[in-house]
Design a protein that fits this description.
homodimer, alpha/beta, Aspartate Aminotransferase, domain 2, Aspartate Aminotransferase, domain 1, 2 domains, seven-stranded mixed β-sheet, three-stranded antiparallel β-sheet, globular
């Protein structure tokens, strides 16, 4: 078997131990004589596993008791609609949005279908290479909520502090940095995240929602987009994505075994610091993001001579460093270094970059 | 490893060869050095696999060129909303629905949020044990579409002919009998199906839609519920449920290797006939459905003495016959005998039923 490091932005690398356990259990899940994929979601064994996964993520993130955790389908793109559809009502259909990259832009475009959107922070003029300074953004008086994207997967900018929105609920698309460090969940109204970066396989979406924000959707909101539906049914209103839920549960157990989120934060910060240092100390590579706001998860970089992009990618792949091509909207390279990327993977990338620069610089 | 037969209604049994291949490929998908679960959906290898899966189901179902095939999330329950949200408009927001069991009832409840629903056939008075006779149901003059549920998973009733709705598009929730026999796709406007019965793992939803029904949704319909979004993006507007798509592709290849849908129909009819015959020739077991409309896929049955239900289920499990408990709304037993259930599994059930009757009758 080829030994590789996978820097894909999502679907992304999963812990090797998780993939190995999934392989071992594939045909006979814990003595059931069948794959977990074939098991009824109403069976006692599946429900016990599902509840353990919820307990584990509650534990990992220290989620307070007055928050529900939902295991849904549809990705963050579905949540772009669900958030306004659940939080807007006849008397209040305005919200504040931060525009800080490609994903917050998509969230805004979708939310505009349902109400009035105030863009209260906008870094598009800086090509999304910076973020608003902490405390610099005012909340609109009539905002039903404030939405932001703590980490922009494509541009590689990340908020390292949580905006203070007072009594107005803060909603975060945490798809690309959930579980990467401890956060204070009590500062949020809703956190949502597609699973395919730091949680598990594509096709699962996690929603963490404060109790008082549930049950406010209008009658004409689709049942499947109404948080109340899923809260009432324990995420089993219809058949959930059972296999993805199972894999997410294995990832949560792996995270606990690593030492939880404080330990992951330490490792993630170290990985990112090493990679940014390698980029910064070279004139051959370049990352355009203001250092204070650089992402720990997604590190885009360009080669000063972009005619070397293709040979870089080819030789990287020859060295087992895969999926380094940058997003088509940005070009260049991008190294996504989520929780499951070992430090050895980042070191291998740094060494290859140094060697490539020596031979092509 | 325990050898069992899994009669779950969904998530359900998958072909043993598919699970085995998934296990073998789990850590190193076709030489990629990673699991398919970890692979970017934008990678050439994944796209080639995804396109092959579409080509295979087109081939299996003989889907005409003027139909699109979508690989989505959210289950049939999401389609209950998507269908009216896409087919209703400002001048026409009425539709006809058949009410023939628990799932069509849910589809109706959801559709009522968006327009006027005419229930044009209703077998609730017969406790959903029969179906309207072919040709007996009239289409309303202003119907945007006619919706029906070809197979009711809970009640075990199945249409063995397709209703004629003239020029009005026919929409079918085919979740529990898709791929079980050849059908004439050209008689439908939209076919949708949750994957977790006859296609693959939970978390994938197949939609087959005629070209002229795409692009009609209003501006305020969520992008993720708008068929046009997914058609335009080849089901990759956002990250699709990649692993479920891969498993579905393996199932399609398995079906082709078995001889395709004509062969599956032959086997499915034989399995169902054998099980119904065993039930009918006994006073100990009972199936309430009018014989003409009995399902090939889901066979509910009761024991005349329901105090024997618990011992029946326990001893069945001891014999490796799993997940036979009936739906909580019906009670008794239910044997779901989808494509992946081998004839030997149905024979084992029949033999156990006979033995149980002999010892308890």
């Amino acid at each position: 078997m080829k030994s590789i490091y996978n820097f894909s932005a999502g679907p992304a690398i999963l812990p090797a131990a998780v993939i190995q356990q999934a392989q071992e259990e594939m045909r006979d899940w814990r003595g059931a004589g069948m794959s977990v994929m074939e098991m009824s979601h109403r069976s006692k064994a599946f429900i016990a596993m599902a509840q353990q996964a919820e307990a584990d993520i509650r534990d990992l993130m220290a989620i307070p008791d007055h928050y529900r955790v939902l295991f849904l389908q549809g990705g963050a793109s579905t949540q772009f609609a669900a958030v306004p559809l659940n939080l807007f009502n006849a008397t209040k259909n305005q919200a504040d949005y931060y525009l800080t990259g490609a994903w917050s832009k998509k969230a805004i475009a979708e939310a505009k279908r349902y109400g009035q959107i105030h863009v209260v922070a906008d870094t598009s003029a800086q090509k999304f290479t910076t973020l608003p300074a902490p405390g610099s953004v005012k909340v609109s008086p009539d905002a039903a909520y404030v939405h932001y994207t703590p980490n922009e997967t494509i541009q590689g900018v990340e908020f390292h502090t949580i905006p203070d929105t007072g009594d107005v609920p803060l909603v975060a698309d945490m798809s690309s940095n959930i579980l990467s460090r401890p956060i204070d969940v009590s500062q949020f109204g809703i956190i949502y995240a597609g699973a395919q970066k730091n949680i598990g396989p594509a096709g699962l979406t996690l929603v963490i929602i404060r109790d008082d924000l549930i049950g406010k959707a209008a009658e004409n909101v689709p049942a499947m987009l109404n948080y109340a539906t899923h809260v009432k049914a324990g995420s089993m209103y219809n058949t959930p994505p059972t296999y993805a839920w199972y894999i997410a549960g294995l990832v949560f157990q792996w995270l606990k075994a690593q030492g939880g989120l404080p330990k992951m934060a330490e490792i993630n910060q170290r990985k990112a610091a090493a990679l940014y240092a390698a980029i910064d100390q070279s004139d051959f590579y370049h990352n355009p993001v203001e250092p204070t706001y650089r992402s720990w998860m997604n590190v885009p970089f360009t080669l000063t001579d972009d005619t070397l992009d293709a040979p870089f990618l080819q030789q990287a792949s020859d060295h087992g460093l895969e999926t380094l091509k940058g997003h088509r909207s940005i070009g260049g390279m991008r190294a996504s270094i989520y929780n499951a990327m070992p430090e050895a993977g980042v070191q291998a990338l740094i060494e290859f970059m140094s060697e490539f620069e020596r031979t092509h610089g």
